[in-house]
Amino acid sequence: MIPLFFLVVCAEGLVAFLLMVKIGPFRELMMKGLDQVKMRRATVLTIAGTIFVILLSDLFSLLKIQNKGSKHGAMTPMDQVIWRTNLLEATLMGFSLFLGFLIDRMDHYMRKLMKLRSNTGASTQVVERLEKEKVQLKEKEEKAAGEVKQLQKEISSLTENLKRLKMETAKKDDQIDTAEAHVVALHKQAADLLLEYDRLLEDNQILQNQLFGYHS
Question: Per residue in 46-80, is it b (16+ CB within 10 Å) or e — as a string?
């Protein structure tokens, strides 16, 4: 049992070392291997439970031998050999259980760390994309502001032209009204002149008739 647990402890120590220190592709290989082991979680728990029971049995034997030696004043050479053997087995089994738990936790936190790094990388890409969009939006905003200023200038120019045209139109309307009034006055004057002309024709006709009567 002792050589077997010694090999187990050495193997677990090597796995823990490869998980802690990145050496080529060995960390990824160890994590893939641990995935395969975790797929047989029931078997692993059964083995760990068996080792724990044996550990408790060895601890109980150590206490029993120690109590026996304290009763007799000293342990016999055979009891000392058994006590040391059980102590070595218990130490190796306890250390193997501890290393197994440590490896499990290291694998768990390594996966969390890799996930966080992946998320951080994705977040960095999102931030960079948002920064680019922000710069593009700023450029568009500046361009739109320039266009707005240009439109405001054009609107101001058109407003001034409209005011000028309104003033000119008002002047033209006044001139038209004046011309229309002048035309009306001329029509009235022409009508008066026609009446005066007709009256003069009648007076002329009357005079001619009178002169013709005198000659007769």
Answer: eeeeebeeebeebeebbeebeeeeeeeeebeeebe
Residue 61's nearest CA partner among 40, 41, 83, 43 is 83
Distances (CA, A) of 85 to 8, 77, 95, 99: 17, 12, 15, 21
Instruction: State how far the Cα of 149 lies from the Cα of 155, in Å rounded to an integer.
Output: 10
- Residue pair 7/14 in contact by the 8 Å Cβ criterion: no
- Tokens 């009648």 sit on residue: 202
User: CA angle at residue 61 from 57 to 65, to 5 degrees?
Assistant: 175
Helical (H) or strand (E) element with 75: none
| Torsion angle of C-alpha atoms 60, 63, 68, 70, degrees rounded to 10 | -170
Query: Where is pLDDT greater, at 96 or 2?
Result: 96
Residues in the chain: 216
Report the distance separating Cα 90 and Cα 59, nearest Å: 7
Residue 98 contacts residue 11 (beta carbons within 8 Å): no
The model's pLDDT over 88-134, given as tens digits with 9 standing for 90+, comes to: 888 888 888 888 888 888 888 888 888 887 878 777 788 888 888 88
pLDDT at 169 over 80: yes
